[in-house]
Specification:
The complex is a heterodimer. Chain A is an all-beta fold. Chain A has strands at residues 4-6, 11-14, 19-25, 32-38, 45-50, 54-58, 61-66, 71-76, 85-92, 100-101, 105-110. In chain A, the strands form two sheets. In chain A, strands 2, 4, 5, 9, 10 and 11 form a six-stranded mixed β-sheet that branches. Chain A has a five-stranded antiparallel β-sheet with strand order 1-3-8-7-6, with no helix packed on it. Chain A is globular. Chain B is built from no helices and eleven strands. In chain B, β9 (87-94) and β10 (101-102) form a beta hairpin. Classes of the chains: A mainly beta, B mainly beta. Chain A binds chain B through residues 8, 32, 34, 42-46, 49, 88, 90, 92-99, 101-104, and chain B through 31, 33, 40-43, 45, 48, 50, 56, 90, 94, 96-105.
């Protein structure tokens, strides 16, 4: 089992819809969770981090964490074509330098 | 803003050449990382460093070495480049075990 698993996609949604990206992780000791966005040919850039169970909202983005079920998700409301990218989930054991990345989900938002 | 820079965006080298990839960060971060990213495989950690002159192997250190003589600079060395080292190389830095900030990446082609 991979340490961090994501559906590779592609996930395609129409403009204005909600895009839902999911990630599961295997290590119950994981404490911090991150979502990165990576445009084609570019490096990953941080969108959000989340540390406790529940929802965290930042503009059109909401991260959701459920440690009991070992999953973390990212919702993108009012999706725009500019949101088309690969989204990477990353998981870290707090205080540990070993960040684990999922392989990413490719999202396409169609106008 | 955190800034992580990498010495080259694109490199073409021949098999057997020694290759140096340099990374510099300007946020006084103690941790620095080298990853390679390949389609379908996601980000794989090659080496990381948590202090000057300190280094730890990641998941795929074979064929690579690193050097960290100054806090802001972390170099990745391919002692004898091979075609299977053709990849995108990403450098990142972080403070503690938290968010990693990525450089723009170096796309290396080994012929």
């Amino acid at each position: 089992q991979k340490e961090v698993e994501q559906n590779s996609g592609p996930l395609s949604v129409p403009e204005g819809a909600i895009a839902s990206l999911n990630c599961t992780y295997s290590d119950r000791g994981s404490q911090s969770f991150f979502w990165y966005r990576q445009y084609s040919g570019k490096s990953p850039e941080l969108i959000m981090s989340i540390y406790s169970n529940g929802d965290k909202e930042d503009g059109r983005f909401t991260a959701q964490l459920n440690k009991a079920s070992q999953y973390v998700s990212l919702l993108i409301r009012d999706s725009q074509p500019s949101d088309s990218a690969t989204y990477l989930c990353a998981v870290n054991i707090l205080g540990n330098n070993d960040m684990r990345f999922g392989a990413g989900t490719r999202l396409t938002v169609k106008p | 803003d955190v800034k992580v820079t990498q010495s080259s965006r694109y490199l073409v080298k021949r098999t057997g050449e020694k290759v140096f990839l340099e990374c510099v960060q300007d946020m006084d971060h103690e941790n620095m990382f080298w990853y390679r990213q390949d389609p379908g495989l996601g980000l794989r950690l090659i080496y990381f460093s948590y202090d000057v002159k300190m280094k730890e192997k990641g998941d795929i250190p074979e064929g690579y070495s690193v050097s960290r003589e100054k806090k802001e600079r972390f170099s990745l060395i391919l002692e004898s480049a091979s075609t299977n080292q053709t990849s995108m190389y990403l450098c990142a830095s972080s403070a503690g075990g938290e968010t990693q900030y990525f450089g723009p990446g170096t796309r290396l082609l080994v012929l």
